[in-house]
């Protein structure tokens, strides 16, 4: 993950960042569909979010999406 400026956390939680600019996911067979569809749709609602990179762990494949 690449963050814009200082890291901003949601409600002082250390596992939810509010200001990512680039998010990189390593896909697994069990989460691939959710990462491609569900998470991507959620990330698009984040104002600072610009790029999404999906790295396939089983094939030589990287997909890059921009907002």
What order do the helices and strands come in, and which of them pair?
Blueprint: E1 2-3, E2 20-27, H1 32-43, E3 51-56, E4 62-66
Parallel strand pairs: 2-3
Antiparallel strand pairs: 1-2, 3-4
Structure described in brief:
By secondary structure, the protein is α+β, with helices and mostly antiparallel strands. It has one helix and four strands.
What report would you give on this structure?
With 67 residues, the chain is α+β, with helices and mostly antiparallel strands. The protein is 18% helix and 31% strand. It has one helix spanning 32-43; strands at residues 2-3, 20-27, 51-56, 62-66. A 4-stranded mixed sheet has the order 1-2-3-4, with helices on one face. Strand 3 (51-56) and strand 4 (62-66) form a beta hairpin. The radius of gyration is 12 Å and the shape is globular. It starts with a strand and ends with a strand. The model has no long low-confidence stretch (mean pLDDT 92).
Give the SSE order as H and E letters.
Answer: EEHEE
Structural class, please? alpha+beta
Based on CA atoms alone, the radius of gyration comes out at 12 Å
Give, in spatial order, the strands making up the sheet with the most strands.
Answer: 1-2-3-4
Specify the overall morphology: globular
- Mean pLDDT across all amino acids: 92
Overall number of strands: 4
**Low-pLDDT stretches:** none
Counting DSSP H or I runs of 4 or more residues, the number of helices is 1
State the share of residues found in helices, binned by percent.
10-25%
- Beta-strand content: 25-35%
